[in-house]
């Protein structure tokens, strides 16, 4: 058992630093789950039919009301009338019968003169009946034929034309069994408006009784297709998520009760699936948040402070959105006022652009759920897009804090971006907005931009103070010459102050060349020799000519005084509550190098002198900025000591100093690569050549000594 624990314990010891990311991730996951629980969970109600609703109830889901849809389909199908098809054969047949009758009568009248026909009406009528079709002769009496034979030919021809046209019109409209009489009535009306005499009209009405027959028959296929088309055209009755089913004070009718039952708000069992989905979402958010925290921790040497800052800012973002969601509903757009860009600004300033960008995406995803008006299954995509653009704009627009009015410029840029996104939403919307709505929403966007800038300015000092985090704004404050320590350095050690300013300028240039924090190197260089203010007269740059106290001291004691300025400086900076990064530069700017002058002097007095007794305590530089200040601190006085500095001698000195530090192992703990050291060497040489360039020797005037 003990052997097993010996194997397990190292595993946890090596990985316990990962808890720096795991614990915040679990905490964020829990917060996301709890804050979104009421956004995805459906409330249920104990309501009876015909009771009065105590609150307004909206549908939590989008669902089809199949019962209502089926009822509308039945109504549409029943409203379709039966379809009938008109038989053209019957129509043509009846018209041909009428033409046949008139043709027979007219033909007979042409073959016999009028006198002969008048004496033989009955015989001629019998002859006509024998010549006509069987259906005509069987249905039309002899009296009709006799009456026709008694009419003059012109009247018969006109009657044939008028009657045939009227019959054709009536039959083309379709005659069913139940409206035969109405068809005959239509023909009677047409005849009444004609110029035919009344006797002939009476005869034609007898023919109408024969000619008007059923020619419109029920069409089963057409009727079925019509009913099918009508059913297809009925839109499904859909209850949409967020739709109000019953309002407060409204009576629960049977129809309303069925709708409430359909959308599931009457079920007391609840639905566990949204809870499971929310758990999965929270786990995904926690995973990506934890991975980002892990990367931040690795970059910051497993420091807890940046993780705490990210955690606090994320919690703040979630709670700001949650509080804002309580005031948001479909009738307003108050999500536009949310100052989410402030979180992105703080993340960029305190952590990095990468972290600000990645976490902005997570916050935007949460906004889609947070502003769903507490309707399960709904996502507010507009809020997510607005928040994403707002945060991205803040990240892009927020430049270095070393620039003046950078927050104000960012706020102005945010106003423009917010306005553009809001106008885009309005143009893409199907709803019609008044000019008042447009200006109101634009005002919301302006307020959000201003609030973001104000919150960023207000919260940044809090994070700097309570978490001890170093920002560009804090560095700018420390670089102010009116800082007490810098004023003391200037007054008590003017030579050291000048040296510090020179080192600061060169270090900043070198840092920017390799992508390090130039502002941090500059400010750290200002304070790196602050320990010399404890014994200013023991450092050569502050001594008057022929007044060196080291001449009266043994080499070891002199070396101890020189070496002690790093620890004195660190203690002085701690007493003034300076940031850890500045203190580290003061402690590490000499690495573990040897105080060469006093070591060689002691070596002359005692050959057994140990080199270790004349080395700085370190530690060795652990960051790029610390290593660069270390190099520049050695290079600047070496070049300044040259009587006539030339580009060649400057290159030679800088190269030899950097190589000696590498060979002595003084840069072993720094992350600088050989390639970066080459870049630093060239950059430092160029800077020094610009400072210590050769000067023209002006000729003396006559009489000058």
TrEMBL record:
InterPro entries: HD/PDEase_dom, HD_domain, HDIG_dom, Metal-dep_PHydrolase_7TM_extra, Metal-dep_PHydrolase_7TM_intra, PgpH_phosphodiesterase. SUPFAM superfamilies: HD-domain/PDEase-like. It holds the Pfam family 7TMR-HDED. Keywords: Membrane, Transmembrane, Transmembrane helix. Gene3D superfamilies: Hypothetical protein af1432. Residues 492-647 form the HD/PDEase domain. It comes from the Bacteria. The chain crosses the membrane at residues 272-290, 302-321, 333-351, 356-375, 405-427, 439-463. This is HDIG domain-containing protein. The lineage of its organism: Bacteria, Bacillati, Bacillota, Bacilli, Bacillales.
